[in-house]
Amino acid sequence: xxxxxxxxxRRQFLNGDRTIWAMVFILCGISLIEVFSASSRLTxxxxxxxxxxxxxxxxxxxxxxxxxxxxxxxxxxxxxxxxLLVPLSVILLAYLSVQSHSSSGAERWINLGFFQxxxxxxxxxxxIMAVAYWLSKLxxxxxxxxxxxxxxxxxxxxxxxxxIVGENLSTAVLLAGVxxxxxxxxxxxxxxxxxxxxxxxxxxxxxxVILLFVPAQTLRDSRIxxxxxTTWQARLQDFSQxxxxxxAYEYARVVAPEKPQETHANIAIATSNILGKGPGNSxxxxxxxxxxxxxxxxxxxxxxxMAGGIVVMLVYIILxxxxxxxxxxxxxxxxxxxxxxxGMLLGLQAFINMSVAVGLFPVTGQPLPLIxxxxxxxxxxxxxxxxxxxxxxxxxxxxxxxxxxxxxxxxPAPVDGNESFDE
Length: 423
Known about the structure:
- By secondary structure, the chain is mainly alpha-helical.
- The chain has one domain.
- It has helices spanning about 1-15, 20-40, 40-45, 50-70, 80-105, 120-135, 145-165, 170-185, 190-215, 215-220, 230-240, 250-260, 260-270, 295-330, 335-355, 375-400, and strands spanning about 110, 115.
- Helix 2 runs antiparallel to helix 14 (about 295-330), helix 4 (about 50-70) runs parallel beside helix 16 and helix 14 (about 295-330) runs antiparallel to helix 15.
- The longest helix is centred in the last third of the chain and has 34 residues, at about 295-330.
- The model is unreliable at about 415-423 (pLDDT under 50).
């Protein structure tokens, strides 16, 4: 009897999908070990070697507390979140754009003194939540509903992506891709999606042609092209060059000094073997820029081997399967669309980060969710997972006929004042 009571108490503390909770704790454990190892370069000659890991531990702790609190709420309360996130992110991204132009460079963070805030992280989650709400109100057979919701989604996504693209192209592309798939799954008319696809593909081809063939100096002198265009150009040209690859000697003499990140990531992976060098024994962390963030997967493989890299990959795959299960269990549209959107965001972000580390994608600035060092990323990822757990928790308790926080309370419509959550 005592064991049954203890199990029941644990279930009341950690509600929702138990497998997702287990994957979260695995990722947090790996993160603490690998960030501590990879961040040693950050403290060399500057501060205590404990400073980065203490900061990261605090961020993870706050994230887990936030995750726990969010997962206790009924999912209908999540519809209020974009009311704050979307306007705040637009204001901060606009401010960041003005600052970037005034300093002739691209900025990703706003320094709050005690915290480095990355507005693009707020923006992409706010947009996904707003789009999930709009799609849940879509009447597929009503042309007026189709038109209104299509243009709402297009304008909001276009605005936020336009503000993000100057400081982080990969995040803008990632957000646009997630929203595009959500629109297809949400029932936006095919003729609209085909037209949108044509416009996006055409614009993408023009952008690639410009980056491949327009001289770098011309891009620098242009006032309408983002200042980071030359960086995108260099990465795209390097990645697209498939002919005349240099031999090992020429690569080491000429190419390696020009591509330190790719070079040391490749060395880390090539020297890892099956089980790796062991936690804390990385050699490349002292030479690899952004080893604790953008390229932490390379350090994971170096220290934990190919086996460790596969385990991390499997954790994200399991998370995606569990998110799919949550979406399929949802009887209402909103939680299903929200779960799919957040799941795609986390899955694609993890895929891009790991692909960059192993050389399958050009270098981007996408962190590895819940593993990479970065306060805003950790907190927002924790919020996403908290909402996924909250949807699962709500579905579980509704199936058992139990009450959940907020279930009995009416909440005002967050986006359109004439609509109710209970419609």
